[in-house]
């Protein structure tokens, strides 16, 4: 999986967080603290675990790889830092010390239970340090037949937050569990710089126009990478999606399920695909919505999805005779003019400043919601055109996980940590060449997104680049929306094709997440598969 932009995330949880402009958005990662503790997890009424044979096992030599880049500029240095959540391993020795562990579920939020478990920092060294995973559950009650694990995307989106807003009634015989993947939310989160340092990083011009700005961008990413290593220590070396898939297999074991039922959105599709590759025989009912690119084909990039979404918005706006123009071209010219203006003259917003980078992030955030976000996007753009950048800054803050008090939620740090652990990169010089190619593919927004140099100077080496095929897995339903801005539709086609048992369901609609935004056809296909085992016809179009 490759990350093409520095601040843009593929997060399906956004529709659950965005509220009307002028209200206060709930920041990613904000939730009540579970009442359970790591030490309390030794006792539980949870049902007996399933067979422990090979739980969380991984042998890289048994999988094909698909490397493309060599990450030439990455460095590595040590830090003894241990973020909150590090702990001594449970009593015992080797893997058995974890196989004997149980989840201690305790009531927390209304209608929910919270649980805590320890997992090895390094699954290949179970006698070493442990880290903490936090999760929430909506219990099905006496009718329970299985567990549905869910993930909202990111990387680094909070599964715990997702549970509270998830329509569990669609899956009445499933316990629904959302967990914060390692390094995110409350699960031993990645730590980086101070709020002031992070503010400066977020405001950095991500689309350099000259060598001085290139130098500033590279220095900002070097500094950010160093801050993350200094505060997070060895956690950065054990935070890949391979590690998370091993965690997920362990959680499946703890709840006593022989097979994994799973619904993952956006980056959550990468977790699901990775699980299917590592443990194909344990795949139950798996639904992967708004697929990321699991191939090495980069003929379709994220910026192309945003270009398409912006054109769709421009068509809508023109038909409304909106204040930005009466033709698609006029609207697009207005939008790009506003963004270019922010480069030359950032807007003051009380004691802060809206830069071009923040304006781009704020603007594209609205595109995640398809036509449901168009009116608010128009309001934000017109206000910025008239000198008021508050609405764009608010949505930029939401996307970046910046809280009202100036602190940042964990996703600001977990996103790059996980993304850079998962993906190889061409280095800083290679990023310049890639940017030129990107601009040809997505001429409207790629120039504003700028080069992807975030991983170039990261302080952890990439994980093995596995070719995700899931040979021998049960049918895996892949959902794709034709107007998805963040994960272009072609990526769903590629995922369904590369996964041996992939089944493609297409929603002709705009926005990010066919499950959240899609029509009854999509909902029925998913519910019938998870609840009844009815596999939808491949290439179904809704």
UniProtKB/TrEMBL annotation:
One of its GO terms (biological process) is proteolysis. Residues 27-93 are annotated as: Disordered. PROSITE patterns: PROKAR_LIPOPROTEIN. It holds the Pfam family Abhydrolase_4. Residues 1-20 form the signal peptide. Keywords: Hydrolase, Protease, Signal. It is an enzyme of class 3 (hydrolase). InterPro entries: AB_hydrolase_1, AB_hydrolase_fold, Pept_S33_TAP-like_C, Serine_prot/Carboxylest_S33. Residues 63-79 have a biased composition (Polar residues). Residues 30-52 have a biased composition (Low complexity). Residues 452-542 form the Peptidase S33 tripeptidyl aminopeptidase-like C-terminal domain. Residues 147-325 form the AB hydrolase-1 domain. Its EC number is 3.4.-.-. GO terms for molecular function: peptidase activity. Belongs to the peptidase S33 family. PANTHER family: 2-SUCCINYL-6-HYDROXY-2,4-CYCLOHEXADIENE-1-CARBOXYLATE SYNTHASE, TRIPEPTIDYL AMINOPEPTIDASE. This is Probable exported protease. It comes from Luteococcus japonicus LSP_Lj1.
